[in-house]
Amino acid sequence: MPKTVQEIAATMKMLRNHHVVTERDRDFEALLVDLLEVDEHGQLTHEPIRVTAGTETHGIALIEGSGGGKTTAILKVLQGCEPLQNNPETGAPRYLHVKVESPATLRSLGSQVLRKLGVDTVSDRAKVYDIWAMVRHRLAVMGISVLWLDEAHDMFKSATSLETDNMFKMLKSLMQGDHPVILVLSGTERLDWITSFDAQVNRRFSKLRPQELQFGVDNMPLKELIEFYARKAGLEAAIDEDTVVRLIHGGRHRFGRCVRTLVAAIKCALQDGSNELRQEHFEIAWGREEGCEIVQNVFAAADWQSIELKDENDELYERQRAAQDPKSKKKAGVV
User: Fold this and answer.
1) SS3 for 63?
2) pTM surpassing 0.85?
3) Contact 113, 95 (CB under 8 A)
């Protein structure tokens, strides 16, 4: 019997709320734990470990392409870290999540962090230095141990601008002083390339780069995940390995993108009144997401492996990088 609109909506919400723990989650959790102090009883605390003679903290940079699932993974780990859950003095967590708004400047980012810390209005006459002094003060007052800047690649316009140099100085200042915080940065490949330009910033961060899904190695685990999600939705997964490898390709080899397409395909199957999840449902869901012609749909085309899939933002960035870097110009054939 076909599900009602309300039942389909409830199923979709249930599937979207289900989080699959991956190696990335475990690796990030291990890095986070290594940056927190333990008490005399060996229990993890919210206090950051201070290095360099107790003068500064370290941070984590999680670097992955768009749609990989890094935001969800970090959020779940932070929510599951007991010492960071509640500051009895504020009733709020000891971590702060800020999604960087683009385009970002030191002023706009500082004001954004302050809003998250309860300061709604910043004077237009306030100097950037004063804004960030207030940020550090509020982080201390609120007892924040971990500051997470999501989409952190948007903090950097280029690798050579004065604004970028000042961003680097700001990052270092947050990890120093009387109340240094553990800084977590998450973003695309651009984040790795730009932060590597400043040796002092680079050495302060442990880099985590989740592995992309690979044909063959990840076929069976992904097929089992499809079957699991289908069962939760009350469907039989009528798919084979061909569907799985097409999903890996269509998802740009990123776990998060593959799961998003899977959930969308299940919705198509439910709306179709089917009791099976078939490849045609993936074809419909992926086609809607990509807005492509049928000949460019990886779930429909016979020669699907020849279909090149680009990430527009990363592609634009690489072109800009090639235009600035003489070595990249030479490799790319740019004169």
Assistant:
1) strand
2) yes
3) no
In a shared domain, residues 252 and 173: no
Let me know whether 40 and 108 are in one domain.
Answer: yes
Averaged over 32-41, what is the pLDDT?
96
Give me 2's structure tokens. 């076909």
| Burial class for 332, CB neighbours closer than 10 Å (0-12, 13-18, 19+) | middle
Give all strands of the β-sheet with 59-63 in edge-to-edge order.
Answer: 95-99, 146-150, 182-187, 59-63, 205-208
Per the prediction, the chain carries an average pLDDT of: 89
- Specify the number of domains making up the chain: 2
Q: What domain range includes position 160?
A: 23-208
Final residue belonging to a domain, choices 167, 190, 208:
208
Percentage above 90 pLDDT, the chain: 73
Please check the confidence at residue 228 and state whether its pLDDT lies above 70. Answer: yes
Token pair 């779930």: residue: 299
Residue 327 confidence (pLDDT) above 70: no
Residue from 1, 7, 19 nearest 233 by CA: 7
Task: Assign 147 to helix, strand or coil.
Answer: strand
More confident residue, 196 or 182: 182
